[in-house]
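### Sample
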Amino acid sequence: MRQTELVTLNMREFDRLKMVQAIVEMGLKPGRAAERLGLSVRQIERLVIRYREHGPSGVVSGRRGRPGNRKLDDGLSVRALTIIRERYPDFGPALVRDRYAHFDQHQTAD
């Protein structure tokens, strides 16, 4: 007997869950599901495997609750903000980025 678990899904994950369930239970073709969800057939196949192994929680992103890859260290962020506030007290974020790129010849991501 499978234990009941509460899974929180956003709308995209809910749509994926419904498609994966349709593949597993009703025989929907993975190619059709891939078209509807805008994913590759291979990604759909991986979702089906995770669904079979973990149930509905298998369609939830493994990155949920983790910091993004581009997140700066908190100490570095505080230090940068301190320098910016001292040197450019009346500048907004876009102007600081432009000035920094111009004067220091560094490129920052938008």
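The radius of gyration is 22 Å. This sample (Winged helix-turn helix) is used throughout the tutorial notebook.
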